[in-house]
Please model this.
Amino acid sequence: MNNILLFTETMIDVAVQISFIGIAISIVLLLYRIISGPSNPDRAVALDALGINLMAIAGITSILVVTSKLNDVILLIGILLFIGTVALSKYMEKGVIIDRDMD
Amino acid sequence: MLSLIETWIDIILNISIVLFLLVGTFFILSSSIGIIRFPDVYTRLHAATKAPTLGIASILVGAFIFLYGTKGIISGKLLLAIMFVFLTSPVGGHMLSRAAHRVGVKPVLKHQHDAYEEALKKRNVHRDNE
Model:
């Protein structure tokens, strides 16, 4: 019985390594799209997905080093990602970020 | 007998953590491949806003179960992060698509027509008549 428990704990380590490798490959693909996007909205879309990948990296790191101090970091990355996406899209749309016409 | 049941519960929690992590990684990686392969901003938004939401929710649920199993912590911040991504990812995608249309990126259309541009033209004609 304890053998099965030890085996599943080893399986968690292997799954954490596989997840790190997969998300690293995903970030490399997104960096290609960010650098050579045909237009600026393409780069903004890829940056949005890159922030999601950073949240995933922080979550997997909190499993690798057994800690609960990274939960604030995950939540904060999510909030800053939303604010950044809204600011980028409004800047591309109108040229200003904060304005007074309610369109 | 009680320790046997606890051992089985730990085994089931570990297997569910592994499944959640692998499913989340699969969805995030497939969405990134979609961002590379799709031909257009609007189709790339499909890949960039739907699949990573499921992937990040799965990975954070895995971290939640891991923290509960090893330290006994019920972390509300992880559930709050899942809810936040679930609410704000469609809003960001909508604003990005509208900004792309206003900037002037033309969609790659094969079988449909550009309905949003026709609606904008109709609204502008309506405003001019008033």
User: Anything to note?
Assistant: Chain A touches chain B through 55 residues (CB under 8 Å). Residues 2-35 of chain A form the longest helix (34 residues). Chain A has three helices and no strands. Chain A has one domain: 2-94.
